[in-house]
From TrEMBL:
Location of 4-aspartylphosphate modifications: D53
Gene giving rise to this polypeptide: regX3_1
Annotated protein name in UniProt: Sensory transduction protein regX3
InterPro entries (UniProt xref): OmpR/PhoB-type_DNA-bd, Sig_transdc_resp-reg_receiver, WalR-like
Location in or out of the cell: Cytoplasm
Record-annotated Response regulatory domain positions: 4-117
Superkingdom classification of source: Bacteria
GO annotation, cellular component aspect: cytosol; protein-DNA complex
Taxonomic placement: Bacteria, Bacillati, Bacillota, Bacilli, Bacillales
Molecular function (Gene Ontology), one example: transcription cis-regulatory region binding
Record keywords: DNA-binding, Phosphoprotein, Transcription, Transcription regulation, Two-component regulatory system
Source organism: Paenibacillus solanacearum
Presence of keyword DNA-binding: yes
DNA-binding region(s) in UniProt: 126-231
BP GO terms, sorted: regulation of DNA-templated transcription
Every OmpR/PhoB-type domain range: 126-231
């Protein structure tokens, strides 16, 4: 497991205990005894999760986490002896993902760490999937799974076949398709092609998405072969 955790805690007995349990689970652990040292470590290394006390010398953990949040969205667990509801609410409001009060069971803290990492990685995967679903170059935006298109930030309603044609070309940006291949793929009539149908749909699509339909940038003609998607994100 190549997962690194930063502990910021001014009580060495507590920080050492946490580190022992986390290292037993295979985590790489660094310890800082105050906010300044923690900020220095944070600036030099990439961490996957932060555990921070709130009552720290010089700068409290709340301000520290606000600074961390300006740099990263990694999971943050507050560890403190303060149990007031308002304190807990404030800690979560300013960017904490979890809040554990002292005294605590080390095994429970480890379980919270593992749960925080699972949630974060799940969110990351969803974000990556969402980014893969979205194509944009600032002028043309295509949400492939949602089947939504906008031009110059204005929603564009396309007939089903035009939308299918656009998405198909987008999903194969380096591939040139003949008229027969496009007709077979979009209209699903094997062995029968209607060049006029494909040409009309491409003509109409260009009028709607191209800045200059006479000189298309997205649906590009490859003379003697067919069409390809020519846009660049």
């Amino acid at each position: 497991m190549d997962t690194s955790i930063l502990i910021i805690e001014d009580d060495p007995d507590i920080s050492d205990l946490i580190a022992i349990y986390l290292r037993k689970e295979g985590f790489r652990v660094d310890i800082a005894k105050n906010a300044e040292q923690g900020m220095s470590l944070f600036g030099r290394s990439a961490y996957d999760l932060l555990i921070s006390d709130i009552m720290l010398p010089c700068m409290d953990g709340m301000k520290l986490v606000q600074w961390v949040r300006s740099q990263s969205d990694l999971p943050v667990i507050f560890l403190t002896s303060r149990k007031e509801p308002q304190q807990i609410i404030e800690g979560l409001r300013i960017g904490g993902d979890d809040y554990i009060t002292k005294p605590f069971e080390p095994e429970v803290l480890v379980a919270r760490v593992q749960a925080g990492l699972r949630r974060y990685r799940s969110t990351e995967r969803k974000s990556e999937a969402s980014a893969a679903d979205l194509w944009t170059d600032g002028w043309l935006t295509i949400h492939k799974k949602r089947l939504e298109v906008s031009v110059d930030d204005k929603p564009l309603t396309l007939p089903a076949k035009e939308l299918q044609l656009l998405v198909h070309l987008l999903e194969h940006p380096k591939q040139v398709f003949s008229v027969a291949q496009l007709y077979d793929k979009i209209w699903s009539l094997n062995g029968v092609s209607d060049e006029r149908t494909v040409m009309v749909h491409i003509h109409n699509l260009r009028k709607k998405i191209e800045k200059d339909p006479a000189h298309p940038q997205y649906i590009v003609t490859v003379r003697g072969f067919g069409y390809k998607f020519g846009g660049r994100p």
